[in-house]
Amino acid sequence: MTRLLRKAELHCHLEGAVPPALALAQARRYGVATDAFMKDGAYVWHDFTSFLGAYDAVSGLFRSEDDYALLTETYLDDLAAAGAIYSELFISPDHAEAVGVGADAYVAGIGRGIEAVRARSGIECRMVVVGLRHCGPERVEWAARYAAAARNPLMTGFNMAGEERMGAVADFARAFDIARDAGLGITIHAGELSGASSVRDALDLIRPTRIGHGVRAVEDPGLLARLADEGVVLEVCPGSNVALGVFPDFPAHPLRRLQAAGVKVTLNSDDPPFFKTSLEREYEIASRIMGFSDEELDTMTRTAIEAAFVDEETRARLLARL
Ligand SMILES: [Zn+2]
Does the record's keyword annotation contain Hydrolase (predicted)? Predict the structure, then answer.
């Protein structure tokens, strides 16, 4: 029933969105064995470290501009069919360099995919460049400089992901300054595997308009009030949080408490097939298990469009579609 609702997604990692069927097809093409990270057509992992291992193995199956165009088209076609009108994809030029595709070919392939799907379904999509925290401040600054220099109208934001418990957020502030000075939107992963203090640090040191996850802000009432006051938008990913054991199950997930505290929240799938979810399923969970009304779900979609890293003309056009 939520299939009929318009949807928008701000938080999805492109390489984390590979449908298992596409991974299998790519593995056959390149002669790669999949036993280490796939079983019975699904990805297998058991903790955050082995999740990152499976993620890297799947990412390694995409090796050319065409491969990335295919991946982008496959994901966005599914998203558009589920009612989404807007998507932000987290991309990693760093990773593209590491696997030998090269950042420019990687971005060109993703851009082609975005334009192809927009032409047939009308879905808008933007790329948000992600620096990987566990690669250290120098690599994250490299990613920021890459994004800043690109001047690509489809590349509109900067983010940091990866192992949240590694390094102090202050070490990465310079990368975010580079991105902000270039006019890119700013978001950062915090308050997922690390507690409320990581959200506070992100607000103080990075000054983002959005936070990836941020759900553990519930541990600190003062912080909740601050998030509500400052209008910082949380990119909430319930399926990911439950899959990684941040919360034991959906009834225990704090989405409702965050919303009730006046914090701006949105629904997102993060790395959907790794967490046995999809954007559509996140809306279903919020509706059926957490008891959000269709009006409340519409409000979350509107919040996502209002917080999207797009120009004002595009934002107005998207809002008019709700
Ligand atoms: Zn994420």
Answer: yes
